[in-house]
Input
Amino acid sequence: MANRRLAPAEQQPASFAFTAENAEWAKGQIAKYPEGRQASAVIPLLWKAQEQHGGWLPQKAIEAVADHLGMPHIRVLEVATFYTMFALEPVGRYWIQVCGTVPCDVCGARELKQMLHERLGPPGHVDPTGTFSWLEVECLGACCNAPMAQINQDYYEDLTPESLGRLMDDLAAGRPVKVGSQVGRTSSEPQGGLTTLTDETLFDGSRIGAWRKRFEEEGLHEEGAELRANAARDAEKPKAAKPDSGRATESPAAAAPAQRAADGKAPVEPAEAKGQAAPERSTVAEPRSGPEAQPAPQSGRSYTQTPSKPEEGRPVAETKGSTREAGAEPIAGGRTDGTQAKPVGADPNDKGPPGPGSRGGPEGSSTPSSNR
Output
């Protein structure tokens, strides 16, 4: 690879300054960047300084660029020595930079370097006529058309030792040369020409309608297949018929005055006008089957004493409306036919069962119960 050192002192110029035109150009480049970021213009300014000085950067040109940008000299020197696009030693009128990375190396870059070494000598040196010098550099980004070389600012691709030799002869003689691929390749298409997508109708728009028609036909075919499948499935499992499904439910019109007038009847029934129910709208009670329900006995007393625990021998409430005489024997089953009882209030000393809120009864407490 290249030896990234400055040229010897005897080859260095005493000074360097941009021409008036290049200085104005440099101001425009610096103005592209915000305040405090002027150092971002270092590469464009180094490129312009190299172009002005005949294709290479002397030490004074590097220092002049640093002064324009307000940068330390060492910072600009670091940039110039890092990129091989900046030549630090004198070069020929045509500077040949041969890519030596893997894609170009496997495609024939070794043969190109060998031919240049034999014709011009070691890399980094100018031939005796000052016309050519060459250098091996890192990838130049034209891997599809390897091997390739950059001569000054132009790319020459798909090279062979023979085609590179003829190219150098034409440049030295001042004859016009073809930039780019040297085998007739267009851009980065496959070597030997296109092998796919060669039908022009793919790109002139004539197939747009045909493709749309095909998609529509395929869509209709799929839709028809789906409909046939649904029909076959329905035929295998028919659904139960529902004659009234989706139909409006019919109901007799209301006997409103407007409807009655439309039917040729009086707007209001004569019976309704007299406050009576119309015969067709009267309610008829339906007869019930079974024994007639008997009403519960009524009495003047609404509350009786109800024991909370009859199993403990406490008195049992008697039938409302009657009470046993003092000393009478209890009736079996707790029932009476009325002969053993006397009406409430017949005895002046009998005040009847306690009313609501009373504290009488067993153990001085009672729970009122409503007449059910």
User: Anything to note?
Assistant: The mean pLDDT is 77. Residues 22 and 275 are 117 Å apart (CA to CA). The beta strands are 94-99, 132-137, 148-151, 154-157, 180-181, 305-306, 322-324, 341-343, 367-368.
